[in-house]
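Appendix B. Raw example, untouched.
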Amino acid sequence: MSDPGGFTDDDTRRAWDRGAEFWPDFVRSGADYYRVEVHGPALLEACGEVAGLRVLDLGCGEGYFARLLAKAGARVVGADISEAMLAAAVAEEARAPLGIEYRRLGASEVGREWGPGSFDLVTGCMSVQDMSDPCAALAAARSVLGAGERVVFSVPHPGTDTPFREWERNESGEKGALKVDRYFDSGPAVVAWDMARLKGRWETPFWRRTLAEWTEMTDRAGFLIRRLWEPRPSSEQVRANPHLEDSYRVPFFLIFDLVVVAGP
């Protein structure tokens, strides 16, 4: 998959079905340290108090964030289009039950399953950018909420996740400045999952958006932005895990905290 040129839900499903052989171990072992130590906990913090809330987690994958929500007291439904990823999530729920329900659904389809007010909160942990039509996904999320309720989701930070992205390094290989370019070259792209800490290699399609494009999309879907979050590890975390030092210096992730606009 060198250039998707636009992609469908089936493209995403096939890509993540391939990755499901390796992804659950990557997350659960702690090797995905940015997720486990930085943007995952930050997303949960952005959600606020979730105990007792009905929460729909879109693009739940193998269930990482659904489990965080459930452990915090939420009543969670996780939705994803990848059968293989959902199988991993269901197996983990059977091993360590948290009361999570998993459904094989595309994010844009949730309005067909549930009506307004069915959920108090909708979340997406680094998943919305992988959806073939993020705007339709956000509109569907709005359709299962009531006025004043929220969607909270994370995406790669538009300011640093650019088509050209390269770290300057000194003679010892230590990272210097991060060089970025072509920020405005938005559109469909491909991420190659080929890090050394992964046990396998595969590619997935995603949408690269500018900050203005993301905010315009949330507006068209019927939301107001309550707050933007830029997760950053603490200095103590960096001392314990020096691999996090780059995300301490520049933002790698962006969290949108949205509220439903009243009215039709």
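End of appendix B.
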